[in-house]
Structure formats: C-alpha cells, structure tokens
C-alpha cells in the first residue's frame, strides 16, 4: 500500500476510535511510589464476549471479563500455588477425597445479600452441570457439605489431584444461588448483567461497542480496587487496535491483542510496555482438528499424509512470527512435568504424504487435484488465525488437496463445529490450563463427545485405551504414576491423529506504561484487576 493510502486509512481509523479512551492519556510516566486511586482503565479485546460470566462458555473474550465481577475461591501465583480469595483457608485429607474451605467473612453480593457456603455448594453443582470443563473438573465431587455459613466441604467419590488448582474466578466462578436457583442457567439474565462479589460492579453493555464496570465501594478487599472504572472495548480490526495502543486510546490488551506482524514496530513506541507473565494458568496448543466422521478424514492414511505435509518450524516462523513453540503433543510444553517432547511419528516428508494419499484411493486427477475440502478456522484468532488457514491451504495444495478456507463469526463457528457438525477439519486453539485432566482430557475422552458443547471432543475420537488412561490419570494421587499415564496417552494420540498439534502460542500483554500491577497472578489480566492503578 502506498504511503498516502496508509495515511488516509490511519486517519479514518483514528476517527472511528475517537473517544475510545474515556479518560486515558498517551505516554508513560515515572513509576508512582504508592498506588494512586482513581481514573479509568480502557481494556481492549480482540472480539466481543458472548456473555459476561464464564459459566456456560470458556471462550477467551468471556474469560477476560468474567472475574472483574464474579470471583473464585482461590487465586494462584505464577507457579500455580494457591492463595486466598473468597476462601481464606483450605485443607485436603490424606486420601485426597475431602477438601475443606473456610470462607471469608463479611462478603456481600453486589445486591447486598450475604455470600455463604450455600452459594459455593450451588456453584459447584452448576459448574458440574453446565460448564464445558466443569463436567470433567468436578466429576468426582459427590457432594458439597455446608456445616456452617462459612465452611464448605467438598466430598469426593475418588481423588482429584488437580482440583486444588481449578478454583480461579474465571475457571470456576462462585455464583449467587438466589439469582440462579430454579432458572435455566444459560438463559439467566445474570450472564449478561452479572451480580458478583468482585471489586467491580457491572454498569452497562452497549452491544458492539463497549462494556463498563464501576468500582465496588463495598468490596471486601478495601482499599481495592484503585481505578474508578474499567471500559472494555472490542475492535475487530487489528490495525485499529494497534493505533489505539499507539495513541493511548487503549491502556491494556491481553493475549497479543494486535497482529503478530505489528509487534516489533509497536515495541518501539515509548509509551508501551510488553509482558509475557500472567499466562501460566492457561497454556494453549493450536491444532488442526479432524472430523473423524468426514468422508475424507475417517481414513487414517489421509490424516497421516496431512501430518507429513505439516512443517511446524515453518509455521512458527512465518505464521506466528516467532511467538510460538513447535508442539507435536496435545500437552503444551509449558506443562513441563506432563509434556512429552517426543517428535511426531509423521515427520515432514512430502513424498511420504503423496504415497499415502495414493494408497488411500485419492490419486491426482484433473488439475493434479486429489479432492477438495473446506477448512474452517476459529475467528477469535483474527487475522493470525486466517493467516494460519492460508498457510495450511498452500501446504496441502502441494500434495494435491484443494482447500477452501471458510470463515464465520464466533457464534456461527461454534454452531457449525460442535452442534451441526457440518465440517471436515478446523483450525482451533485449545487451552491446556494448569493440568491435562482439565484442559486436555475434554478433547480426546469419548464420553466428552457432546453435541452443542463447545471446545470439547469435536473430532468424535473414540479409543477405549485412551479413555482408560485419562480416567486413571484423573484419580491417581501418585505424581510419578500420573505423569506416566499422560505420557502413554500422548504417544497413542500422536499416532492416531484425531488432530495434528502445531504449536503453543507465546502470548503478550500490551499495556500503556501508566498502567501498573496488571499481571500479578498466573491468570494475569483474566484476574480481577483489583490491584491495577494508573500513574
């Protein structure tokens, strides 16, 4: 694009985001000695959330906003060690089947009702019923006893060694029983106008434009929070987001909120800072996921051929601009104790790919094309996801597979993949979270093939041995044995290829240097932002 055209585009975009800051200012300032109360924080998202409570969905935009209002029992340091939030004390019985939590006294819901153990018991049952990952996480919780208003006792039928790490606000929100009881949780108005115990109260959601949260003056953690207001903005255009950060119209953005190819340029802007801490609670793996009911991909030789056509190092270099780690396994490298670094049995080899496709009964025909197939990609990834789809189209074209890249908005994408199942293969990112039982099992466990449940076993993968290994690991208290179970699981899945894992993204938080204390926990900006202050 010529320079005059670029200038016009940038001026037009600046007009489009005029007034975005709602009180922000460009340029960094000297570090304040003490947190300064007041001001408005403008938080930029790549896309608009579908809901404001992470109960029936775990989409990234929802996780990014949920905890500002709706808290959890615990928070975690960067090494996933638990710290108090709504629970102040906790203990686990030697057999791993009883978890006892002492709750913080004097906590009020935003409508003035008391927060009690009855809310905890109700929340766990609700998460177990409707939360996409809660079905796995709380599967072994048979009952939550409430001997008094400030004590909640989780009674498990089997051990769940991962459970103590699963209780952040965004992953396992504590919800008001008096608001949800007797209603359809998915349709409850609280999902769009939440009442919580958190440092911020929901004020307004202008669809397609912004969400406003205001400081909770009655927060149990006084003098927190420090900022008066959070304005959440969503701009679908990556260029517009970059300009918002450059001009000071955006203060904070999570999970690399700009195009990857723009990061190096933005790093030269004096007012901006960049942080990779605050992502250890939610390592991701980007993968090419097959529909095993597809005419083409039910044939293992076709899947193997595609695996041979994938060059992970090239993907990280050209698609992720170096912000990723090649990953053959379904378990992210960040989960060091569980990750198996063994390479895929299907190394990059185009000749092997061609041979397998011939054997599968798909010879090259007119135009040297073997077959045509649509490829869907998760639009939450924006331009970077589209770029990966285009890369895959080119890579598979080399072995005679003609790929049609197919786009959809987030809701339509989820419906197509998980409800209607009208797809052949898809590019998607899946969070491993803090433990494979919570983040990985859902993708490969045959019992988690549930139409309509997003980010579950979309492949319709069924392997009894894999089920056996995953179920054993979910209840194994011996750490060494548990690691061995997951290593065996990884080897089987990497050979079966219900999907092809590509790389683990390295996420970057971008912030105006006037913003302090935004990434203090393992979940970083997904946490409640109570400690954030503006210098």
Short description:
This protein has 535 residues and is of the alpha+beta class. Helix content is 28%, strand content 21%.
Could you list the spans in which at least 5 consecutive residues all have pLDDT below 50?
1-32
The share of residues in helices is: 25-40%
State the end-to-end distance: 38 Å
Provide the CATH topology of the largest domain.
Dipeptide-binding Protein, domain 3
The pLDDT mean sits at 92
What is the topology, as strand order, of the major beta sheet? Answer: 8-9-10-1-11-19-12
Instruction: Tell me the domain tally.
Output: 3
CATH class type of the largest domain? Alpha Beta
Largest sheet: 7 strands, mixed
The coarse silhouette is globular
Provide the β-strand percentage band. 15-25%
The CATH homology group name of the largest domain: Dipeptide-binding Protein, Domain 3
**Got a strand count?**
21
Oligomer: single chain
Helices, by number, come to: 16
Radius of gyration: 24 Å
CATH architecture label name of the largest domain: Roll
What structural class do the secondary elements suggest?
A: alpha+beta
């Amino acid at each position: 694009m010529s320079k005059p055209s670029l200038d016009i585009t940038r001026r037009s975009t600046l007009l489009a985001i005029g007034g975005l800051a709602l009180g922000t200012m460009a340029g960094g300032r000297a570090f304040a000695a003490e947190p300064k109360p007041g001001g408005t924080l403008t938080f930029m998202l790549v896309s608009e959330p579908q809901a404001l409570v992470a109960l029936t969905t775990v989409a990234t935009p929802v996780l990014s906003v949920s905890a500002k209002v709706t808290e959890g029992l615990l928070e975690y340091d960067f090494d996933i060690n638990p710290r108090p939030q709504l629970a102040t004390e906790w203990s686990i019985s030697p057999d791993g089947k009883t978890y006892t939590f002492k709750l913080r006294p004097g906590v009020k819901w935003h409508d003035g009702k008391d927060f009690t153990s009855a809310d905890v018991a109700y929340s766990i049952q609700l998460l177990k019923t409707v939360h996409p990952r809660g079905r796995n996480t709380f599967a072994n919780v048979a009952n939550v006893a409430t001997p008094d208003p400030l004590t909640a006792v989780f009674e498990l039928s089997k051990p769940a060694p991962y459970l103590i790490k699963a209780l952040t606000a965004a992953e396992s929100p504590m919800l008001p029983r008096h608001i949800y009881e007797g209603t359809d949780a998915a349709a409850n108005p609280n999902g769009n106008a939440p009442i919580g115990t958190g440092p911020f109260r929901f004020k307004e959601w202008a669809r397609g434009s912004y969400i406003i949260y205001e400081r909770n003056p009655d927060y149990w953690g006084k003098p927190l929070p420090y900022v008066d207001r959070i304005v959440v903005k969503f701009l679908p255009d990556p260029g517009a987001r970059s300009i918002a950060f450059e001009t000071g119209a955006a203060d904070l953005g999570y999970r690399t909120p700009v195009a990857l190819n723009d990061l190096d340029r933005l790093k030269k802007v004096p007012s901006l800072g960049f942080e990779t801490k605050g992502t250890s609670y939610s390592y991701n793996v980007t993968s090419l996921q097959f529909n095993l009911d597809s005419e083409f991909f039910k044939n293992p030789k076709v899947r193997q051929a595609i695996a041979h056509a994938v060059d992970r190092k090239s993907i990280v270099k050209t698609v992720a601009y170096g912000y990723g780690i090649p990953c053959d396994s379904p378990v992210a490298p960040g989960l060091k104790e569980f990750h198996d670094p063994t390479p895929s049995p299907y190394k990059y080899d185009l000749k092997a790919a061609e041979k397998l496709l011939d054997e599968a009964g798909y010879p090259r025909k007119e135009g040297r094309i073997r077959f045509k197939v649509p490829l869907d990609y998760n639009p939450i990834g924006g331009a970077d996801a589209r770029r990966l789809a285009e890369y895959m189209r080119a890579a598979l074209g080399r072995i005679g597979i003609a790929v049609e890249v197919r786009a959809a908005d987030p809701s339509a994408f989820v419906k197509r993949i998980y409800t209607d199942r009208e797809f052949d293969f898809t590019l998607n990112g899946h969070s491993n979270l803090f433990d494979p039982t919570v983040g990985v099992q859902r993708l490969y466990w045959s019992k988690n093939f549930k139409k309509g449940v997003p980010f579950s076993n979309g492949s319709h993968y069924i392997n009894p041995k894999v089920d056996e290994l995953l179920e054993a690991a979910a209840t194994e208290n011996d750490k060494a044995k548990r690691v061995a179970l997951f290593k065996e699981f990884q080897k089987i899945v990497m050979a079966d290829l219900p999907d092809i894992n590509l790389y683990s993204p390295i996420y970057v938080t971008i912030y105006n240097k006037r913003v302090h204390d935004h990434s203090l926990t393992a979940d970083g900006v997904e946490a409640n932002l109570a400690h954030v202050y503006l210098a």
